[in-house]
Amino acid sequence: TCGILHLILQCLPSSTLQDSLTRLGVGTKSDIETWLTGEKLGSSGTIDLLDWNSLINDRTKISNLLVVPNVESGHLEPLLDKFTEEEDKQMKRMLQRMDVLAKHAVENGVRLMVDAEQTYFQPAISRRTLEMQRRFNQEMPVIFNTYQCYLKDAYDNVTVDVELSRREGCYFGAKLVRGAYMYQERSRAAEIGYEDPINPDYEATNRMYHKCLEYVLEEIEHNRNANGFFTNQSFMEESHC
Description:
This protein is of the alpha/beta class. It has a domain at about 110-235. Helices cover about 50% and strands about 10% of the residues. The chain is built from ten helices and six strands. A four-stranded parallel beta sheet has the order 3-4-5-6. The protein has a two-stranded antiparallel sheet with strand order 1-2. A hairpin with a 6-residue loop joins strand 1 (about 65-70) and strand 2 (about 75-80). The longest helix is centred in the middle third of the chain and has 24 residues, at about 85-110. The radius of gyration is 19 Å and the shape is globular. InterPro entries: Proline_DH_dom, Proline_oxidase.
């Protein structure tokens, strides 16, 4: 965990980053320069290729935003090149509905809690939730992400997201649960042949749950003493056994 947080706190001059990425063959120099333009940056000045406003813009195609480097050609290519026009519209409508819900929650002073799913879906869910937090958690914690503590990487996920919210200057909202998809996760891991993402037993899950809980409580106490210098947090507990 210390190693992950150490990496998060590192900063590189844009010129150094561009040179390094070019040498690695991640993209052409012109491609990389477009990644570092102002419209691709978060409020902290960090790179963000998937800005929430761009995602919900009717004039922007989702498939144009989701691109990955082709190692052989050195150019960026669509990640979802099979995305049909109708699928692109469906994705856009889903994101716009999320935007409507978030705005309604802000206007009515209520919280919007985004549930967690299986690990093979969760990265996309968390990415969208963090974007919503950056947009809507400016005055108070409205958007809450869910962290399943039966996962081996739960603590890393919580600490990294707290640091990201600190950098972006928004409130961090978390719902801590134990988890609900143990059998599906283990079955898929065994079938495909990757490491089981679930803690080995209930006791290990409890330890992870309390480790995450204690970290968030310590952050809340620390922020209270820091007179608002650090990003504030809010959380709730649930038990999924």
